[in-house]
Amino acid sequence: MDNLKKKNLKKKLSIVDLAKQLNISPTTISFILNGKAQEKRISSELVERVLKQIEEVGYKPNALAQSLRTGKTMIIGLMVENIANPFFANIARLIEEKAYKNGYKIIYCSTDNDSAKTKDLLRIFQDRHVDGYIISPPEGIEKEVDGLIDNGSPVVLFDRYLHDTKADFIVVDNAGSTYEAVNHLVKNGYKNIAFITLDSLQTQMQDRLKGYEKALNEHALSHHVKEISYYQEEENIIRHIVAFLERKPELDAVLFGTNYLGVSGLKAIKKLNKRVPEDLAVISFDDHTLFELHSPDITAISQPIEEISEKLITILLGRLNKTSKAKKTQSAVLAPELIVRGSSRKIKA
Known about the structure:
Rossmann fold; 46% helix
């Protein structure tokens, strides 16, 4: 190893150091690194000499300095409720894939549906100068979201939206999908249908409840709703569901408001030695790989994950790259699919 390379290992090179080594201006190197050599009429020979020197000395541009020059970090902040949940994990993976193809990197985190934690994470992302945000928001961050947009950072919300904010959003037809699920159960002969959901005022959970109630009202059937607090240990969720089902022996079907409630619900049903669907038919909002492995397989309301991801990143990239001409808030309500499986089959006469 020559003396120059040894020296470079001890000291991180700056663009000024590199310019001195090549006896050219830092500005010329900057133009080359930012792909403006042809525009600035820099000779191909000089470009080749600069790139060769960069490779030899291991020069790496300072990311913060680059962002100050270009006004971009090429980083997108993705904030989801829980990255371990298959729905959010799949959304993140697809967004990351398309973002990378467009030159952007993703930094993502879980908010745990906690507004205080979300505000802290937003401050961290702002300190990192991320270019834009994709968020599944908890309640109570409306002011922060509008502040980001006012400061020039585009924000796209998904899974739920915040009333009276300036953010673009993508959601699904939550009310229509639970309405369809309940009608499917009624058509198959079920009359005492419960809805086990989260104790939440968020738009997606409220809309799922509205769809359930609308369908039961149209058929003049009784409501049986159990609301469970967010982020309890699974053991507690199972215990609450067991107690609810024991208090309601008349139930012949249950609709779960999320996939993780559905998984816990199946464990509760097993604890009670009930058969699916003979004793209790089951449908869950959000599909899950475990639902296909269960015997019988579980009917699920499946969200269009690829379409959601595509629309999210397309809207955000349009805002970031100034290709979108939309000045007003952009939004879309997508249609989930009811995947009918063995857990909700028709009752034999």
